[in-house]
Every structure is written in structure tokens, then in C-alpha cells.
Amino acid sequence: QTVEPFDLVIFGGTGDLAARKLLPALFHRFLDHQLPPSSRIVGVAREALDDAGYRAQLREALIAICDARQLDEFLQQVFYRPLDARKDEGWDDFAAFIGAEPDHVRVFYLSTSPELFVDICKRLGHYGLNQGKSRVVLEKPIGRDLDSANRINDAVGQVFDETQTFRIDHYLGKETVQNLLVLRFGNALFEPLWNSAHIDHVQITVAETLGVGHRGAYYDRAGALRDMVQNHMLQLLCMVAMEPPSSLAPDAVRDEKLKVLHSLKPIDAGNAGQLTVRGQYRAGVAEGASVPGYGEELGNAKSDTETFVALKAEIGNWRWAGVPFYLRTGKRLAHRVSEIAVTFKPVPHSIFDAASGSLTQNRLVLRLQPDEGVKLWLTIKHPGPGGLRLRHVPLDMSFAEAFGVSQPDAYERLLLDVVRGNPTLFMRRDEVEAAWRWAGPILAAWSDSGEAPRPYAAGSWGPSASVALIERDGRTWHDDN
Ligand code: BG6
């Protein structure tokens, strides 16, 4: 697919996301000839750097993953402008630089703290950089609650209209998440069973082994609910639970997701104690190495920010009545794994005797990362003459084995979607609002309760209360690691 020449400006150009995700993604698109030669990538931050200094910094960050010769070629298309969103200095020069290519698609990627979104947008508007083929990308989380999100969206909306505004949730760019759409709506097999008559419950796990590292300043103000649940996990839940959209048109998909968000049953002070568990990691052993606890990593032993959340969500509509969606996410957990596990109801009557072994419920597991793939757990007969012995085994499809290609990073797909102006995999304003409307009362309930998050050892599966949360319902967390 061809790509129009574009300028992509990254505010927060010296930050973690730019070096770890955005620039590598653009480099890979460059290798695939999707970075037209006149296109420019412009890093913007407060540091006093010039083009050469920025390129040298990126070279150091990227050299481990890139071929040196091609990297240098790519870096010729990368520039840097020092700017402070709150000071005038440098903006005239920046505006002239961007204005020099009036026909380019312009993408302003705001990879900064959300508090700066408004200042940056006002300045872009002041210089007329919101005109023509201009788009703005807002990184999550947008605000820290409904009110602050509304303030940001209102102010950004004064400068960029909704069709120019791309609220990114990189989980939607993951290949396996898009595959969920294909799996559900490209096969006749699943949809007739995709409801409360046949599905027992759904589990969504996003477990990380890393700690907060040097992102503490951001993370400590956010916590796992704002960082992962309000956006990534709810988006996954929507993809599992939404009604079939009539097409893949951006609003057809987003309308259906919105209905799911609106149907989430409230969790508030009355039931948060039963339906949610928050935790914070302590020192422990992660992937064979001793690691410090969150407080030590942060340099603030008093922090009561949660690094782990498990909760039981319910969707109050006809399709999903009575089907729990168990969500859990955390840092410094036992394994890095993101997956969606859909467990079906047991068969209504067993014709097998106890000696054959017990019947296990069918389960469809979509592994988002690592080892992307799909497993459908079935009951079969153990081969051989030893009588009827039941076995639970997966039909196992690994994407790497089946297609022999590595999965492109989510940002590769999403950045080009912005350049092309395709918002299907981005969050509309009303989705962000609906997600905050549901998450806000949970945050309020936690803060009103005055309870500290429960400690868990780094390298474990989180606080034991999260095991109790699901076991109370006679179920267990899926784990086939
Ligand atoms: C980001 C969060 O949005 O997603 C991080 O801010 C988290 O805290 C990351 O580590 C996880 O993304 P991925 O693609 O590595 O699963």
C-alpha cells in the first residue's frame, strides 16, 4: 500500500515511548518502503539538542535492533527541534520548519504528560498547524478521571475536530487483537455460541514481569487501573463482548464497543470490596533475579499506588447477563503473558463413567503475547486400548509456526493508520468518557476505603486475594505456562 508523504512530529521525542516503540516502528516501515523520501520525523522535547545530537541518541538506542547502514539512512529523515510547550521560544522556527512542506500529511503525536496536551494544541492552532491534512495523536491515559479527560478533550477539540483526533490504544493495533475480530466474525463456528447460554466466563490477563523501572514518576500518579484497565483491558473486553458491527467502518465498530462500555455494571463503594483486588509488589525474584519492591524502585516506601488489579466485571445486557469477565493485570508477575480465555459451559449430561476421568469445559484461548496464537481446548479419547480415558488437549495454532513471519509491532500499523486517516482502531471521545465513567467510582471507592494495596512478592501471581476472587465463584485463573 502506498503512503502519502508525511511529517510526523513526536512531542516527548526524547522519552521512553519514542525510543522503545515509535522510532523502531517507523524504522520498520522505512525498511518496507513506507516512509516516502521527503517524509520527516521530528522529535520535539525540552532538551537542548540539534538534529545531529538527536540522531546520535537514537542511534545508540536503536543500534541493537537495527542494521547500522540502514539505520543511518533512516536517521537522515529524522530531525529535532527543542521546544517547551509553556514557553514561546523556538515555536516560530518550528512552525516555519513544518510549514515548509504544506502538502504533507502532518501528524502531531503527543507522547507527553496529558497536562501538556492543551498547551501544545493551542500553540499548534495559533500557528495554523491544525489546518489541512493535520492530525493529532493523544497517548493514553487521557486525563486521570472523567472531568480531566473532558477538559482535555474540550480544549483539544477547539483546535482539532474529532476526525483529526486519534486517541491511541496500542492494544488495538496488536495483530492478535485484530484477529479476534476475524476469529469471531470470519467463522461460522463461534458466533452462535458466543453468549450467556454457552459461555461460562471470560478471563483477560495482561501480566508483565517488568517493574516500573524509570517510569515511576508517571506510573505513581497513574497506577494499574488508569494505566492498563481503563484503556487496554476494557478495549479487549469490548472486542470480545461487542455485537457484530455491520462493517469495519470506523463508527460501526466504535458504536458497538461503546454499547458494551455503557452496559458495564457499576462497581462502587458498595461492591468494590467484593469485586476488586488491588496489589503492590514487594521485593522478590523475577525471572531468576532478585528485584526490589515497588516502593524501593520508586524511592518512596509510602506510595499506595497499585501495580496489580484483579476484578470481576459484568455486562448487563441480554447477551452477557450472568457471565463474569475476570480481568487481571500487574507488573512483576510470574510470567509475561497477555491472553483472553473464553470458557464454555459444561456439557449438560455426561455419558462417561468416573473411571474415564472427568470432563473439562471447552476453552478458547487467544494468546496476544508472547507466542501469539489460538488454542481451543477439547476433550478427546486417549489413544490406545486401555479403555475410555478422557484427555483435555488443545487444537493449537501458533502464528509464528503457521505463517513463519514475526508479528509487526502494534505501533507500525497504528502510525500508518493515522497517516492514512483511518480511525477504526482508535478510541472515539465517547468511548474514553464511558470508560472513565465506569473506572472513576472504582478509584473513588479505593481511595475512600483508605486501604493500602495488598502486598505481593515480585515473581508471584499477585496477592492471594485475587485467587480468592475467582475461586469464590468455583473457578480458577487460567494458566498453561
Ligand atoms: C502501556 C503501559 O500502555 O502498555 C505500560 O503504560 C505497559 O505500563 C505497556 O507496560 C504494556 O504494553 P505491551 O505492548 O508491552 O503489552
From TrEMBL:
Which positions are annotated as binding NADP(+)?
R46, K140
Sites binding substrate sit at: H170, K174, E208, D227, K331
One of the GO biological process terms: glucose metabolic process
Q: Which GO-annotated molecular functions does the record name? A: glucose-6-phosphate dehydrogenase activity; NADP binding
Superkingdom to which the source organism belongs: Bacteria
| Enzymatic class | oxidoreductase
List the SUPFAM superfamilies hit by this protein, alphabetically. Answer: Glyceraldehyde-3-phosphate dehydrogenase-like, C-terminal domain, NAD(P)-binding Rossmann-fold domains
InterPro entries with a match to the protein in the record: G6P_DH, G6P_DH_AS, G6P_DH_C, G6P_DH_NAD-bd, NAD(P)-bd_dom_sf
Would you tell me the Gene Ontology cellular component terms? Answer: cytosol
Q: Report the residue ranges that make up the Glucose-6-phosphate dehydrogenase C-terminal domain in this protein.
A: 181-478
Report domain Glucose-6-phosphate dehydrogenase NAD-binding positions: 9-179
Write out the catalysed reaction.
Answer: D-glucose 6-phosphate + NADP(+) = 6-phospho-D-glucono-1,5-lactone + NADPH + H(+)
What are its E.C. numbers?
1.1.1.49
> What keywords would UniProt list here?
Carbohydrate metabolism, Glucose metabolism, NADP, Oxidoreductase
Membrane-spanning residues: none
What role does this protein play?
Catalyzes the oxidation of glucose 6-phosphate to 6-phosphogluconolactone.
Read off the NCBIfam families from this record: zwf (TIGR00871)
Q: What HAMAP family is this protein classified in? A: G6PD
Query: What's the protein called, per UniProt?
Result: Glucose-6-phosphate 1-dehydrogenase
UniProt source species: Rhodanobacter lindaniclasticus
